[in-house]
Write a structure and sequence with these properties.
Chain lengths: 315, 327
């Protein structure tokens, strides 16, 4: 772990008890997030990317359980601590949720309470973490809504989520997440439920926000086009494991792991004539046996035996 | 909102006119009327009643008019607040109904509060601690309450209260207060009697409300907005009450209005067992003895309360749920 790492996950496993037995949704995952960078986790549905993010904020609920691992968080000018060691219901844990890390979700249509005003919900985030008066919280919330591009913020504060479009709701979610100045923002497929133009607006907003406020983004997506636009570092996950990590350039232009190569080959191109190639991902994970990550040249890692890694990448 | 309520009130008028016609026809449907029923009773006692007397009686209650005229007579008086005269009780219907209606409302509200105070917290507990020992325990107790007939529970409670505490708990008042004017001690006497009907009537509804609350809340607990609030760092107690409970409780608010009609007819059997001066037993008697003005007034009041109750439900729901308010 070097000094630039804000969050470092080591050996994280999350188990879900189901009727067909115990399922490891996240299997011995290790990854690092660099400070003030955008780290993208890519993978198919069920690859464990969302569960990893939920574990970072200790949001996993029964029947899920974090069975092992460490999540070392190093906030700016503060001591490192292990998120998984925080006591349930401790002040530190509630400060972590919303104060240190914040999250925006895939479905802006359902992620806000339908019977509370936008203002109420954004102000709640402020009042939970800061000792300010309601009037001050109102001002802060207005300023933040204005900042994410919602016009007439003080009027729109009185409105309910169903009076907002999907894109506007996602802006509200972003405002609500950022209003307490967290150091890590987890975006769990924030553009998946939006149409392409709104998707572009939200991505532009996130990029612009990241530039102006020093924040580390964890971006979870299955959309490689989005990864290309926003990510600095990429982590490829499949069936609860990390298969490959590296910079966005390394992963998209020069993937090593066969799964990553398949994933990139499955992206439809403008001039594509043949059928799309499906990504093979059998649930029993026999396709990609559990090799552990090995470090390679250029600060990248891949989960393959050294013998299968082309000579030029090896250390 | 104002125009909405006005529209709804206006729409009630044709509904009530149709209901009043149906009520009137229903009352007239059984063969005979209360005069012939009374007559049969008198003749059994060996009294001679002349045809003129019978006709005079019929004329007194307008029973000699053609049916449509009788209807208009009845309904116009009803609208002016005169509900007619009960032949069986030999009293104006107004004096018979209003006092009983007052007690009925008191008992119904008390048992409703009892039900909610018990069922909603338990429902919340059962949902939050799903499949825990407490969840199962309360479910079993609730189902027992649902399966026990109310009159049975009433008898058991009366028996226990009498044998263990030596208090007679039938009725709403002790004999010495029954006819007394209202005073502090009469109110205290009422309170010492009202708990049995409150528990008996309240227990019946507890189980179903408990289970519905549990199911509603379980649905809401897994909604994304709950995760959002958790991710914001909201404390668990505040979170549960502010978000999912707030939404899970809406269906109950919308059922408040439905309780209005059950005020009159709901607890007849329990009232008879417990000797309560409520409207249920009176309605039953009126229907049995074909006391047309009394029965007709009851049925009309029931209908009006039903229609008003629906409106009340809709207004309350609009107040608590902005999504409905704006549509």
């Amino acid at each position: 772990m070097n000094i630039d790492t804000i969050l470092s996950i080591r050996g994280l496993s999350v188990m879900f008890k189901t009727e067909i037995g115990e399922q490891l949704a996240v299997n011995n995952v290790s990854l690092d997030m660099k400070r003030s960078q955008t780290t993208a986790i890519v993978g198919e549905s069920g690859s464990g990317k969302s569960v990893t993010a939920y574990a970072m904020m200790r949001l996993i609920q029964a029947p899920g359980k974090i069975t092992s691992g460490q999540i070392i968080c190093t906030p700016a000018q503060q001591e490192s601590f292990d998120v998984l060691q925080l006591a349930d219901n401790s002040n530190a844990l509630y400060h972590l949720r919303g104060g240190l890390m914040a999250m925006i979700f895939q479905e802006p249509m359902t992620a806000l309470s339908p019977v509370h005003t936008i203002g109420n919900q954004v102000m709640e985030a402020i009042l939970t973490h800061q000792t300010v008066t309601k009037a001050e919280a109102f001002e802060l919330a207005c300023a933040m809504l204005d900042r994410v591009g919602i016009a007439d913020a003080s009027q729109r504060m009185q409105q309910y989520p169903f009076e907002f479009s999907g894109g506007m709701r996602q802006r509200v979610m972003i405002a609500m997440a950022l209003v307490c100045k967290p150091q890590i923002l987890i975006c769990d497929e924030p553009t998946t439920a939006l149409d392409v133009t709104i998707q572009a607006e939200i991505l532009a907003l996130l990029k612009e926000l990241k530039k102006t406020i020093q924040i580390s983004l964890l971006f979870i997506t299955h959309d490689l086009a989005v990864v290309a636009q926003i990510a600095d570092e990429v982590i490829v996950m499949n069936q609860g494991r990390v298969l490959e990590t590296g910079s966005v350039r390394q992963i998209l232009n020069d993937p090593i792991h066969p799964y990553t190569q398949n994933l990139i080959a499955a992206v439809p191109g403008m001039r594509q004539q043949d059928r799309l190639r499906p990504v093979s991902s059998k649930p029993d994970s026999t396709d990609y046996p559990s090799y552990s990550l090995i470090p390679l040249k250029g600060d990248r890692q891949v989960a393959l035996p050294v013998s299968l890694v082309p000579e030029e990448y090896r250390l | 909102m104002g125009t909405y309520i006005l529209k709804r009130l206006l729409a009630m008028i044709p509904t009530l006119i149709i209901i009043s016609v149906i009520v009137f026809i229903l009352i007239q449907l059984p063969p005979g009327d209360i005069i012939s029923a009374n007559l049969a009773a008198l003749q059994q006692q060996g009294m001679e009643v002349s045809t003129e007397q019978i006709e005079a009686l019929r004329a007194q209650y307008n029973l000699d008019m053609p049916l449509p005229l009788q209807y208009f007579h009845w309904i116009f008086n009803f609208m002016q607040g005169d509900m007619g005269y009960s032949i069986k009780y030999e009293q104006p219907v107004n004096t018979l109904i209003w006092e009983r209606l007052g007690y009925t409302v008191i008992i119904a509200v008390a048992s409703l509060l009892f039900t909610w105070a018990l069922a909603i917290p338990i429902g919340i507990y059962s949902a939050v601690k799903q499949y825990s020992f407490g969840d199962y325990l309360f479910t079993v107790i609730g189902l027992l309450g649902l399966a026990t007939p109310s009159f049975m529970l009433a008898l058991i409670l009366m028996y226990c209260a009498y044998t263990w505490f030596g208090i007679s708990v039938g009725g709403l008042f002790s004999p010495e207060y029954a006819e007394a004017p209202w005073s502090l001690s009469k109110t205290a006497d009422l309170l010492s009697h009202i708990w049995i009907p409150m528990i008996v009537l309240g227990t019946a509804g507890t189980a179903s409300i408990m289970r519905v609350m549990r199911a509603n809340l379980l649905d809401e607990l897994s909604k994304p907005y709950v995760v959002t609030a958790r991710a914001k760092g909201v404390r668990p107690m505040k979170l549960i009450f502010k978000y999912p409970v707030r939404i899970a409780i809406n269906p109950f608010i919308s059922t408040i209005g439905w309780l209005l009609p059950t005020l009159i007819s709901g607890e007849a059997i329990v009232s008879i067992v417990l000797n309560l001066p409520t409207t249920g037993p009176l309605l039953l008697q009126a229907l049995l003895s074909q006391d047309m003005f009394l029965a007709g007034s009851f049925l009309m009041l029931l209908s009006i309360l039903t229609v008003l109750g629906m409106l009340l439900s809709d207004i309350l729901l609009a107040v608590v749920d902005p999504r409905i308010r704006y549509e």
